[in-house]
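Tutorial sheet, problem 5. The two components below are modelled jointly, 448 residues in total.
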Amino acid sequence: MIRILTIILFGILFVFTGNLQAQTAADLVEKCANDAGEDATYLKDFVVKMGEAATGSRPPVARYPLVLSKNNVYRFSVCTTEQSEGKAIIRLYDSNRIIFSSYDQDTKEEFNPFNFLCQKTGIYHVFISFLDGKSGEAVGILSYVTK
Amino acid sequence: MIWKTILFLLSVAVISSCQSRKGKLGEAALDMPDSLELAADLQISEEALDEVVQSVSSPIEMAALIKEIGTPFSLDYLATTDYVDQYNTSFQMAYSLGVFGADLGYLNMYNKGTQIIDYLTAINKLADGIRVGQFFDFTTMKRLATSRENIDSLMYISVNSFNNMDSYLRENNRGHLSALMITGVWVEGMYLATQVAKQNPDPALNERIGEQKLNLNNLFLILNPYKDQKHISDLLAELNVIKAEFDQVEITYEMGEPETVEKDGMIMIVQNEKSIVHITDEQMQRIIIKTEEIRNKLIAI
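Model answer (structure tokens):
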């Protein structure tokens, strides 16, 4: 009887843990969107969860395409969960050319969030990775900045 | 005692699992199968298709531009919600969900609480109809719209709900409904922009309309995999009429290196590579007329 009770309890815990994880991602998106600033209107979010990079291999990267429009100012921000081993970095690319990164590898300076004044309508890409290939969970937020 | 405990725990588990989906299932007469396998002659991979869907720009940006150029608010631009009960096929519901989503973006931008509630009600009904109502928190949104105090929260929840509905549809093999919803958003956004351009021509708005050539090309990529469905092939035929006009619009590029400046204590990257839209008044007039015809045809019952 105790065994049945234990199985049921674990089952319930599993259900609740699943809901909690889903809730956590949604909460982090909301918090990160709110933290983007009063002049920023949320447009999209990018939820990432990555394991640690294998020794000798490149850190894993999540990539998302976007259409950005001319004459708009966009804000890119990234929020890392407290439980993460690494700090998340958000980069903006135009084709294969990097436009900006929220972290400067040379100076170790962080620029999160950063704004982008778009002058060319087209498809861009957002890349999110974790510093030094460590594991972690994060959300990237794209916002529209009111002029 | 143990059995009472088990019964109690089971009740908690059942209640908890029911609440997580809110149990809002519609009774719609679906004219299309609920899930569709991609057509055999799929032109791009599902992964690439996913990328294209992600890359379609938000209706908020068009609404923001309309407001920024000083256009006064007008209800005349919006699709009426009076006939929402008559949208009873999955095609009509998914497409109209997109249309009302674009209109909601416009209303949010102008903070029109009273009208917003009509559109929230319509969207809630349609979302339930295609079984994505669990992503639309109607009660909270209605409260925010009524209070008029927290328009930013309302804007956030609205955009986030549409993003979640779209992701859920694509992840659950109902990409055709996501494609229809995105098309509805785009056509209505184009209608809003072209109606404003007709009454108050503005160079920035004209340029933004011309740039929609890129989004329209993406829409074709999104819809093409489902063209075996008659409703979607008919929709593609309608969009082809606008595409023929957009094919005449030219977009050229000027090269330049980005600059980094500091503004209001924040880093701003200023792009110096520029896109330039070449659109004549005649082309614009034809796009305005075709958009109006197609939009009115597609929302007609």
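Marking note: The domain at 2-145 of chain A is CATH 2.60.120.380 (Jelly Rolls). Full credit if you identified this.
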